[in-house]
Amino acid sequence: MSDRILAAVMEAPHQPIVVREFPLPDLPVGGALLRTACSEVCGTDVHLWHGRLAGVPYPIIPGHVSAGVLDRVRGGLEGIDGSVLREGDRVVFFDVHRTCGRCRACTVHRTPTRCTARRVYGITDSAADGLFGGWAQQIYLEPGVGIARLPDAVSFESYIGGGCGLLTAVHIIERATMRPGDTVLVQGTGAVGLSAIALARLSGASTIFAIGAPAARLDLARRMGADVVLDLDATTAEERLELVRAATHREGVDVVVEAAGSARAFEEGVTLVRDGGRYVVAGHYTDVGPSTINAHQHINRKHLEIRGCWGSEAGHFLRALSLLERHAAHVPWAEIGSQRYGLHSLNEALADAAAMRLTKALVDPWLS
Amino acid sequence: MSDRILAAVMEAPHQPIVVREFPLPDLPVGGALLRTACSEVCGTDVHLWHGRLAGVPYPIIPGHVSAGVLDRVRGGLEGIDGSVLREGDRVVFFDVHRTCGRCRACTVHRTPTRCTARRVYGITDSAADGLFGGWAQQIYLEPGVGIARLPDAVSFESYIGGGCGLLTAVHIIERATMRPGDTVLVQGTGAVGLSAIALARLSGASTIFAIGAPAARLDLARRMGADVVLDLDATTAEERLELVRAATHREGVDVVVEAAGSARAFEEGVTLVRDGGRYVVAGHYTDVGPSTINAHQHINRKHLEIRGCWGSEAGHFLRALSLLERHAAHVPWAEIGSQRYGLHSLNEALADAAAMRLTKALVDPWLS
Amino acid sequence: MSDRILAAVMEAPHQPIVVREFPLPDLPVGGALLRTACSEVCGTDVHLWHGRLAGVPYPIIPGHVSAGVLDRVRGGLEGIDGSVLREGDRVVFFDVHRTCGRCRACTVHRTPTRCTARRVYGITDSAADGLFGGWAQQIYLEPGVGIARLPDAVSFESYIGGGCGLLTAVHIIERATMRPGDTVLVQGTGAVGLSAIALARLSGASTIFAIGAPAARLDLARRMGADVVLDLDATTAEERLELVRAATHREGVDVVVEAAGSARAFEEGVTLVRDGGRYVVAGHYTDVGPSTINAHQHINRKHLEIRGCWGSEAGHFLRALSLLERHAAHVPWAEIGSQRYGLHSLNEALADAAAMRLTKALVDPWLS
Amino acid sequence: MSDRILAAVMEAPHQPIVVREFPLPDLPVGGALLRTACSEVCGTDVHLWHGRLAGVPYPIIPGHVSAGVLDRVRGGLEGIDGSVLREGDRVVFFDVHRTCGRCRACTVHRTPTRCTARRVYGITDSAADGLFGGWAQQIYLEPGVGIARLPDAVSFESYIGGGCGLLTAVHIIERATMRPGDTVLVQGTGAVGLSAIALARLSGASTIFAIGAPAARLDLARRMGADVVLDLDATTAEERLELVRAATHREGVDVVVEAAGSARAFEEGVTLVRDGGRYVVAGHYTDVGPSTINAHQHINRKHLEIRGCWGSEAGHFLRALSLLERHAAHVPWAEIGSQRYGLHSLNEALADAAAMRLTKALVDPWLS
Predict the structure, then answer these.
(1) Where are the beta strands (DSSP E) in C114-250?
(2) How many CA atoms lie within 13 A of D11 on its CB side?
(3) Contact at 8 Å (CB) between D135 and D61?
(4) Cβ contacts (< 8 Å) between C170 and chain A: which residues?
(5) Min CA distance, A101 vs chain C (Å)?
(6) DSSP annotation of C128
(7) Cβ of B55 under 8 Å from any chain C Cβ?
(8) Which residues of B touch D82 (CB under 8 A)?
């Protein structure tokens, strides 16, 4: 194998993605190289391209959730589950490669996703520092990264179809403290929303409503487990509210999940949840402007709980793998990543994603 | 004793309170008459007077939390704690005299304060139906009302000084899931806010901040347990935020309690709480208009929990009594009710309360 | 229709069940008569027959969970969901017909299943007081009983197959605070255990283990959702522990549900759950003697949570109905009630149940 | 300063403690040397001496919680709170110096105190590996240890008086999910029990009961905040149960904390807690043999929650410091460490502790 590989680089916001050659790194003990089988273009990548995240050390190699085959390992490599990993193994890894374990967020508050020293593949590391992103033929796995064997029953496409959205959805469902029989409404039918629908279904939800667009995503939402899909473009907020109330003893649903990332969605969500219900806000990864709500009507008198949900932890990653192992055969995660792009087509992929022409683009860096 | 007594009646919103004679009712078995020693004019009464609550069956006798001496009892009267109550006993009662125990709010959702059949003394019963409010020389306690003996150590003034605000504060502290050592900020230094400060102090809070006005209330806030008081009129929101951050590792506080009932307070509260903290919204008893927040900055990235808190339950009433019994000697609840009004002075009391010239007016219906 | 009906009476512990004629009661306003379609013989009835429950006012008409058709209604009858109920409607009712809503268990502690005034059909009311049990052709539904329409999609057999065990299981799953992907082990494959398996499956459990006997119940356990069934008679506790550890990263399971009612089962359960896991104890409805555990090994060092789970609330009843409506078509609840007995065969039914020859006997009081 | 210092070594269980000279280590970047001002002899040290803990790499330098002055620092030293630490600073450190952050206990289960790679000063490191215990004139603080400045208001004696027992108590109170007004009973008046009493008092407990011995500890228990002390040697379990029930509406207390480490205490604890209450088991650090309870009476029908509580986390350490800062002036933590021993007197200290002649021995390694 050659000692140089190709990676796609985002040099700055709004600039075209360029493909560059990179040397393969010397591995320290406990480090590894992953031959990328599949990575993704997700909503975060569009945000990165639009320059909407603060503190990003451009140029970067994007691609935070990825899967592949261990190409080279130096010293014994231990998986996050304690197993021994070997060259040739099909593996995936937790994209958050560092949290400090010492700061008040990590210790006193037990909110490691708010650790200020948090580092994430594809986002927080400069391309100058090495192969820290999935839009590359090889990814450098530094010592300590949480690596796990991908279960045989799970295809690369299922894993990446779920991708970071699935990890977020595992966190969402945990925050939602669901009980079987709860009614659930998911705002947004992108990657996060679709996985949230699937996990709500697996958690014993009774009726699941989904609000989204376009039609193809709504169709997929149904197949992920939604009972009732509401086309954002074909209905008004008033119509949706009436429909939900008519189906829920005129109460609204037990749990609303916000996975839409729109200021209007947040305003609508507080009307759709029942008194005493829970509203998990997980789609506002970037600032899309202010929302206006009424603290009396929507929170205080409603006795409502609103729960922000940021990022995911290693435990969510491991739980996602266990859920995929059991359910990937009958939940169409693989269909979320509807189209496959090579490194030279990623500008097109970003444009397609930004225009919502696809839910998620799969990246195959070996595709010519 | 005469068979007619006096009560103050609110005939309609914005109308002067008038004093009328009422006949004493025939008691059913299990019913009782309470000779009122003390009732209150609280914020809710001002709202009632301003017509800001829906569905109120005017004319009403206001006064929801009250204390007195059992004047007449028909049949055996059992306290909510199972004890036998007798004429002459000093007692108080839970103002919510009916919830259905059958609706979905009462059963499936376990949110009895959202029961649609809920009835509250001083608010939901017409004066035509009898003596269902505390602004009267006698109060009719219908069978089933939750009556408890007032501990000897607790004066009528301490009990009414706490009043409905204390019951709400017990619910607030429960919703806040505080741990000893938490930092707390209370927005609002009215009756609810002052009791929330006292209970946060009893719950082992480290630094307690209070935002309010005017100076006299801030002084009382200090004596209820606040460490740092911030004058709403003498500081800007930016100054308050900077001060709070400087005192909290630049994080914000663990718990913010909203007891101010202003749309601006809600907007400020989400900035003062730390990432992963809890924001209990309890002051928006009526609609004071919309608030504008940013779902990304203030909820999602903050991993924040916002918890509406509506009304109180019988358990909060009993817990309030147990807290008063232990702490009324050293917590100045009696000072919250700063001035005493007879039935003929209640227009003045309402005007004083509306103008925030006092925190809470005490009502003594026997004062001439 | 005749004004006399038949009911089976348990006159005292260890006495044969006898069939007697009862007059039909005059109905008060809000009362109703239910023509029984189906009732059950459950483990509690065996306990009643063996005299293992304290304070039972023999003679009684057993049968606490029942279903039927409204035969007579006096005045408007409102369902617990607020709907209007009419003669001819297929309905079921919550067997706990009174809790006080006033005692400390009901209010301060929010544990209504520990209310001392709690009254339960088939257990706490003497036959001298009327038709308060399901082993009768008609059941008297007193005003205030929580009645609900049985969804069209749910057969009487599915409802009674679930029966009181399903209600308990809804409570168990709530106490277990399950998350999708949790591993679960259920001890006991009686009516409670089988429904707990089904609900764990609906809640997204990954591997579900069941320990029970005999073979027919284990087969049904599989069809309710268990992945691995362990025959209590064919394996030792050591073998079961090793098998569970081998399948769970050598940790033990996340959640153990005790639904066996044996002192040995409790001792075994604490070894099968992982460190930091949850153990819900729900099968010890009567006293079967002491258990010996090690507080260091099994609780303290394990950082274990053990959660007793007693009875069920109206909310569990309503949630059970909603789960049945959605899932009765594909979960074989109807098979739990394997055999149907008339009133004259109930001695045989009790003997069969006591000898574990069947999981649950269905009672059809019109069967000749 | 000399390059050799003295430390007390436990060479094997049941062997006399010996004092040896140790060389001072070369410091790596980020490492530090602490000149010990004060360490402790706690119950764990007695267990170590009796050989009751598995896997201890004797010889060891005991002493897990310690305080002192930074003597030497190599490279910049950052406190766990992010502050810069300098030679001469009064500091303390979290005794758990390693958890892996990768295993299932650390990630999926969020129970880092059950991490299998956990390392604790004074327990898990051999004296051959260096100065990893507090019974030494200097302690080696390896890079990454969680160091914090001791607040000026907190004496070394207050900090060590609280010591590991205080950290455990912070964890206990968190596990107890206390609300102000709860009644609490603490079993055991050793270091853990005394701090649990203090924290329950700070958390707004109403009546606090303590069961313990001898008289001196009970006296201190009162001054830590207990209202009612019950002498274990002068009362029977039946008398204690009757006394507690008489003072708690015949219910038992809301929360029992087991900090006694006796098999009989665990058996008694389940009788003293009310139905639906919480029992935190924290005193069984070692195996003292089996306990016998009744799963029906004590758990299932009681609807009880039993919560094991193992070790403490960095967040508990930081919270303990914040509580000490606020409360050390009025809570007599300094009195728990009643007597001061030099390195040459530690055999005597262990004997005194084992015989319960003192609650905690303070170790001053510079005392001649």
Answers:
(1) 119-120, 138-141, 147-149, 184-187, 208-212, 228-231
(2) 6
(3) yes
(4) 180-181
(5) 20
(6) G
(7) no
(8) 249
Angle between helices C191-202 and C314-327 (to 10 degrees): 70
Q: Which alpha helices (DSSP H) does chain A contain, by range?
A: 43-49, 156-176, 191-202, 215-224, 237-246, 263-272, 314-327, 346-354
Residue-by-residue DSSP string for B254-291: EEEEE-S--HHHHHHHHHHEEEEEEEEE---SS----E
**The complex's ipTM?**
0.96
Average pLDDT over residues D113-126: 95
Q: Does C216 touch chain B (CB under 8 A)?
A: no
Cα angle value C76/C78/C80 (rounded, 5°): 165
Measured in angstroms, the CA of C321 and the nearest CA of chain D are apart by 24
Residue among C81, C174, C326 whose CB faces A179 most closely: C174
Mean pLDDT of chain B: 96
Using 50, 70 and 90 to split pLDDT, how confident is the model at A367?
A: very high
Contacts with A259 (C-beta within 8 Å, 6 or more apart), sequence order? A172, A186, A187, A188, A190, A192, A193, A196, A282, A283
B202 touches chain D (CB under 8 A): yes
Q: Among A52-56, C275-279, D142-146, name the one with the lowest average pLDDT.
A: A52-56
Model confidence pLDDT, tens digit, residues D269-287:
999 999 999 999 999 999 9
Amino acid at D83: S
Token code pair at residue B209: 């901040």
Q: Tokens in use for A212?
A: 């989204």
Candidate from A220-234, B230-244, C226-240, D38-52 with smallest mean pLDDT:
D38-52
Residue C289, number of CB atoms within 10 A of its CB: 11
Q: Which residues on adjacent β-strands are paired with residue A93?
A: A147
**Which residue reads 């939602």 in tokens?**
A176
CB contact under 8 A, A81 and D101: no
User: Which chains, if any, share at least 3 CB pairs under 8 A with chain B?
Assistant: A, C, D
> Do residues B40 and B160 touch, judged by C-beta distance below 8 A?
yes
User: And the tokens for B95?
Assistant: 């103002």
Token pair 């149940």: residue: C353
Residues 6+ apart with CB under 8 A from B356: B213, B214
In B, which residues are within 8 Å of C109 by CB distance? Answer: 315
Beta-carbon separation of D300 and C307 below 8 A:
no
Q: Spell out which residues of chain D touch residue A81, defining contact as CB-CB under 8 Å.
A: 104
Q: How many CB pairs under 8 A join C and D?
A: 135
Q: Count Cβ neighbours within 10 Å for each residue of B214-235 and write b for 16 or more, e otherwise.
A: eeebbebbbebbbbebbbbeee
Chains touching chain A at 3 or more Cβ pairs under 8 angstroms? Answer: B, C, D
- Tell me whether A250 touches chain C (CB under 8 Å): no
Number of Cβ pairs closer than 8 Å across A and D?
48
- Is A56 within 8 Å of A45 (Cβ atoms)? no
Residues of C in contact with B82 (CB under 8 A): 103
Q: Which chains contact C through at least 3 pairs of Cβ atoms less than 8 Å apart?
A: A, B, D
